[in-house]
Amino acid sequence: MENPKISALLIVFNEEKNIEEALKSVEFADEIIVLDSFSTDKTVDIIKNKYPNIKLYQNKFEDFTKQRNLCISYAKNDWILFLDADERITPELKNEILKEIKKPVTRKAYFFKRKFFFMGEKVNYSGTQNDKNIRLFKKEVAHYDENKRVHEGLSNLDNPGTLQNYLLHFSFDSYEAYYKKVIHYSKLKAKDLHEKGIPYQLIKQLSKSAFSFFKMYILKLGILDGKKGLTLSYLSALSSFKTYEFLKEKYS
């Protein structure tokens, strides 16, 4: 029986700092596909000059769901391995992936547990202790929910499995980079809320922002992460606040 084959997929924009390490960590895949959103840095040049066997496509970014679904459409193999450019597959996780998909009976999708790094330092709490995302799945269930522009998820899953080895997530190397992502995600979330007819309410903006901070800093033990936990909790609150600020603009 022929071994199952994997298509490793990445959607990227201006990832010149991350792209090489990310690609190296998925070299075991049978094909690697990168969908670029017309990067303005050296991302595309690096791929073309150093990784000629990689299938490179470009498409203007609208939202994460559309980019992921388009990238999936280019894949030819039965298994999809999705990786963000700031994530790394460890050798241990690689071996577990290859072993798992060769089993006679498998799940249709698998969660990867993640170890989170912020500005080069490991974060142990702040909600990251339970962080996991579906990164490996069969192409037959490979469709992201089009009702979500951010925090996108597969739309037709039943009882996914969880792999035991960790995916490394080197989230941001600076506060400014994280802040920029918060603003970008907040605009997309505001668009989702507006299209669902959800009105802007000041009390909801303030209460959700306050609870976001409390949830991460206290309930999810961000306080134990010291300054990193305080910063991440603030940015979580800011994300909620900015989402409703952008929603208010849509109704003005």
UniProtKB/TrEMBL annotation:
<keyword id="KW-0808">Transferase</keyword>
<keyword id="KW-0328">Glycosyltransferase</keyword>
<dbReference type="InterPro" id="IPR001173">
    <property type="entry name" value="Glyco_trans_2-like"/>
</dbReference>
<dbReference type="Pfam" id="PF00535">
    <property type="entry name" value="Glycos_transf_2"/>
</dbReference>
<comment type="similarity">
    <text>Belongs to the glycosyltransferase 2 family. WaaE/KdtX subfamily.</text>
</comment>
<dbReference type="InterPro" id="IPR029044">
    <property type="entry name" value="Nucleotide-diphossugar_trans"/>
</dbReference>
<feature type="domain" description="Glycosyltransferase 2-like">
    <location>
        <begin position="7"/>
        <end position="106"/>
    </location>
</feature>
<dbReference type="GO" id="GO:0016757">
    <property type="term" value="F:glycosyltransferase activity"/>
</dbReference>
<protein>
    <submittedName>
        <fullName>Glycosyltransferase involved in cell wall bisynthesis</fullName>
        <ecNumber>2.4.1.-</ecNumber>
    </submittedName>
</protein>
